[in-house]
Design goal:
mainly beta, Jelly Rolls, 8 strands
Length: about 110
């Protein structure tokens, strides 16, 4: 697998539309890790899912209801989350915002 460039500039990096309420932008990766920015409109939904990757999420802006392994909590700007591999998780955006996700290993399905 190849690595991303060393410098990834927002204005030069394409967005991938996930659904009507959210889109993502890859900010860097190698085979061991990946950094992704997710932009949500209010009401945007990341349906409950699982994957083999460890995931940490930082709330840059907005308000979100996260469900992790059946537990729901509201998080907002400045909060963080951790999701173990293969644990069901999902999100609903309550107020428009941005999340930064880190994955280990890389989410090859995003490339």
């Amino acid at each position: 697998m190849s690595n991303s460039k060393n410098f990834i500039f927002d204005a030069e990096t394409e967005w991938v539309q996930i659904n009507e309420g959210m889109r993502r932008q890859i900010l860097g990766y190698d085979d061991q890790m990946m950094l992704v920015k997710i932009e949500f409109k209010a009401g945007g939904v990341g349906t409950v899912h699982t994957h083999i990757h460890r995931q940490c999420t930082y709330v840059v802006s907005g308000v979100f209801e996260f469900e992790i392994n059946g537990e729901k909590k509201v998080v907002k700007t400045g909060d963080g989350l951790y999701m173990e591999p293969n644990i069901p998780h999902g999100v609903v955006c309550l107020e428009e915002g941005i999340l930064i996700d880190t994955f280990s290993p890389v989410r090859a399905d995003f490339l």
